[in-house]
Amino acid sequence: MDKLKLQILPKVSLITFIAGLVIIISSPGWGSLAASASLGGGSTSPEGWANLLQGYTNSFTIIGAVLLFLGGLGCLISIIFFEMQKQ
């Protein structure tokens, strides 16, 4: 890897890691907002509402987990490369 990529990787990875963490923490609230928006002002049964809420919350949680994993992996890779350069 060239020097510029090694300087950018830790910063991008940290931002991705933090974004994933924020999405995971905020997923219940965002799932509720998305479920409400998908109804469009209409009504549904309590079971339908629970299914919508669970689906949207799971979607946001999965997206956050992927970002958290990729950000953490990028941070580990950058640490490994920096340690290799020191030797």
Provide an overview of this structure:
- With 87 residues, this protein is mostly helical.
- The protein has one domain.
- Helices cover 90% and strands 0% of the residues.
- The protein is built from 2 helices and no strands.
- The protein has helices spanning 3-39, 46-86.
- It is rod-shaped, with a radius of gyration of 19 Å.
- The two termini are 16 Å apart.
- The model has no long low-confidence stretch (mean pLDDT 88).
Topology as H/E string?
HH
Silhouette: rod-shaped
First-to-last CA distance: 16 Å
Secondary-structure-derived class: mainly alpha
Fraction of residues in H or I helices: over 70%
> Please, how many helices?
2
Biggest sheet layout? none
Question: How large a portion of the residues is in β-strands, by DSSP E?
Answer: under 5%
Overall pLDDT confidence: 88
Beta-strand segment tally: 0
Short description:
The protein is mostly helical. The chain has two helices and no strands. The chain is rod-shaped.
